């Protein structure tokens, strides 16, 4: 662990590990390019000028920009309809190949290790709840987690990386931020952890390599979650 962890993760005080899903626990089957396109098309259909879209194709950034642009158009349920449409098209892409979902190597062993050592385990994901539950079932991970918070459980603007999403996981677990470690494969996971003032471990099983993560300086950097038991040896 980084000795300069700004949130002071005390391994002996650690009570829970919170996981991102795609690229962290499971090998994602989602076609994110298709999802980006579906979200962009939906925003344009609702009247968003094309030059407002994120040029890097980042779904969350485009949605944040759209909500800022459309602020004040919420009368008569207009924003509710937009959010419903965004969730619908995103979920349609998510579900296309969900039954092919497999775990990241070592996932079962890590989860069993954490539970044997008295740690709670949870998931925070931008995936929809139907997708998440089906992916867990397909991969064999169903039933491991004390709580799961998904994109569509609350308003879309409150999904990760909004720190309120992670704070909801803390509340569900009955934990404080200093008692938890969040693990993810993407910068949005890191952003969420920093904003929620909890420690963060990055893994290399998703879209970001060591060079990218060096710019974010996570508290821990692991090749995969399979490294976690070794990283937490100081807890016992």
At a glance:
This protein is of the alpha/beta class. Helices cover 39% and strands 12% of the residues. The strands form two sheets. Strands 5-4-1-6-7-8 form a six-stranded parallel sheet. It has a two-stranded antiparallel ribbon with strand order 2-3.
Name its key features.
Rossmann fold; six-stranded parallel sheet; 236 residues; globular; two-stranded antiparallel ribbon
- Report low-confidence residues grouped into runs of 5 or more: 1-7
Number of helices: 9
Shape: globular
Beta-strand fraction estimate: 5-15%
What is the number of independent domains?
Answer: 2
The separation of the N and C termini measures 15 Å
Strand order of the largest sheet: 5-4-1-6-7-8
Write up this protein:
By secondary structure, this protein is an alpha/beta fold. It is built from nine helices and eight strands. It has helices at 32-45, 59-70, 78-94, 107-116, 129-139, 163-173, 187-195, 210-214, 228-231; strands spanning 16-19, 26-27, 102-103, 120-124, 147-149, 180-184, 199-203, 220-222.
List the helices and strands and how they pair.
Layout: E1 16-19, E2 26-27, H1 32-45, H2 59-70, H3 78-94, E3 102-103, H4 107-116, E4 120-124, H5 129-139, E5 147-149, H6 163-173, E6 180-184, H7 187-195, E7 199-203, H8 210-214, E8 220-222, H9 228-231
Parallel strand pairs: 1-4, 1-6, 4-5, 6-7, 7-8
Antiparallel strand pairs: 2-3
């Amino acid at each position: 662990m980084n000795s300069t962890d700004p949130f002071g993760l005390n391994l002996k005080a650690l009570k829970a590990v919170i996981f991102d899903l795609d690229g962290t626990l499971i090998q994602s089957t989602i076609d994110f390019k298709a999802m980006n396109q579906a979200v962009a098309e939906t925003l344009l259909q609702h009247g968003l000028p094309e030059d407002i879209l994120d040029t890097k194709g980042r779904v969350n950034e485009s949605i944040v920009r759209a909500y800022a642009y459309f602020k004040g158009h919420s009368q008569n349920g207009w924003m509710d309809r937009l959010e419903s449409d965004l969730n619908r098209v995103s979920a349609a892409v998510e579900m296309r190949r969900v039954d092919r979902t497999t775990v990241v190597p070592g996932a079962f062993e890590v989860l069993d290790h954490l539970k044997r050592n008295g740690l709670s385990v949870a998931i925070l994901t931008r995936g929809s709840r139907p997708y998440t539950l089906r992916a867990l079932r397909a991969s064999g991970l169903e039933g491991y987690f004390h709580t799961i918070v998904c994109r569509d459980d609350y308003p879309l603007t409150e999904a990760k990386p909004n720190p309120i999403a992670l704070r909801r996981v803390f509340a569900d677990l009955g934990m404080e931020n200093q008692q938890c470690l969040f693990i993810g494969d993407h910068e949005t996971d890191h952003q969420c952890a920093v904003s929620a003032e909890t420690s963060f471990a990055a893994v290399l099983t998703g879209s970001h390599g060591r060079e990218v993560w060096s710019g974010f300086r996570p508290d821990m950097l692991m090749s995969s979650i399979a490294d976690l038991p070794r990283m937490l040896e100081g807890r016992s």
